[in-house]
Amino acid sequence: MRIVLGVGGGIAAYKVASLLRLFTEAGHHVTVIPTEAATRFVGTATWEALSGNPVSNSVFDDVHQVNHVRLGHEADLVVIAPATADLLAKAATGQAGDLLTNTLLMAHGPVLFAPAMHTEMWQHPATRANVETLRGRGAAVLEPASGRLTGSDSGPGRLPEPDAIFDAAMALVHGQTDFQLPLAGKTVTISAGGTREPLDPVRFLGNRSSGKQGVALAVAARNAGATVRLLAAHMEVPPPPGVEVVNVETALQLREAALAAAADSDVVIMSAAVADFRPAEISDTKIKKRDDTADPVITLVRNPDILQELVERRNQGATGPAADSQLIVGFAAETGDKHGDVRAYAEAKLQRKGCDLLVVNHVGSDKVFGKDTNSVVILARSGSEPQEASGTKADVSAAIISRIGFELNQVSPRA
Question: How confident is residue 177, by pLDDT bands cut at 50, 70 and 90?
Fold first, then answer.
């Protein structure tokens, strides 16, 4: 497929190099047309090296090939990223001052704009009118992601992640138009990893959680356009780029972080493996093993039920402005026994916790924890049909985030 990749003059231009690589690695022929301003951020040598094709932004280069007409005619797809406020305005008003805007006027195939700019620029009535004009003419304009912008500001206006733009572009080519980022403008808090409860300065009670599923969920939510906050307990994998990380160790620390984060979250996903119990006392010194002393007796006390407390606070309207529509997702790592199977325990837990969705998996010494694959069942408090998802943890996360996007569109204010 022949793709024209137009690059606008914004700081997010550096991310587009990764998008270009995704296109070329998928076997597509890509012609990059940066604006003059874009070359101040990323030089033409980078675009030529990654695309394998010459790069120009002038209508006067290779005039004999009539590039300002030919490139638009031949393109199966035109993608503009980052689509700055300036580029959106020029495209909406039909300007043709350089090679890229000429190509847009000549494009016969689908056109996808991936905006990136400061929040106030994105929300300005002029920009919103330009976006509606372009959409009215049949162009696809993604909603920008939310999060940290240039400087200390934060809000909607971030360029969507390259793989999210790639997926949207491929969907557009295949005639799909419902690919808008499902969590654009949403704030999602995700807990990940396993908590550790100290016994003394060197020992702790822990679990086998690696954090892989929670990190995969953070990536999927980020790629769906959300602002992501990751509450990271002990993890064997690093947190992904593009998310806010809050480090915690114990269940009590996780509780404090989760309750604070829920105040401005549209979605809370409690995927961390939280210790049910903690030592009643923590020794200030290492517990010694001596022949002249008895074996130590460790008394455990219950940790608070963070998921249930989040639901109760949400239902009482104590979690901030999103309380009436906040979606809370729990995880249940279950094993069956003589009293019941995994599904029976999970159904009971869903009713007891009161969360909106419960993601259930069957765990064991050789299952789930630390593995790269997973198999889950998603149960809904609404009573809808259970949904199964399996494959890599990235595949499972994509299914969970897709289900969350669907549920958000169904949510009505709570009584």
Answer: low
Per residue in 69-91, pLDDT (tens digit) is 878 888 999 999 999 999 999 99
| pLDDT of residue 415 exceeding 50 | no
Q: Domains in the chain, start-ordered, CATH in brackets?
A: 2-173 (3.40.50.1950), 187-410 (3.40.50.10300)
Stated pTM of the model: 0.68
Q: Which of 57, 102, 207, 361 is catalytic?
A: 207
Evaluate if residue 146 carries a pLDDT over 90.
no
**Rg (alpha carbons) of the chain, rounded to whole number:** 25
Residue 363: the pLDDT is: 62
Annotated active-site residue 223? The verdict is: no
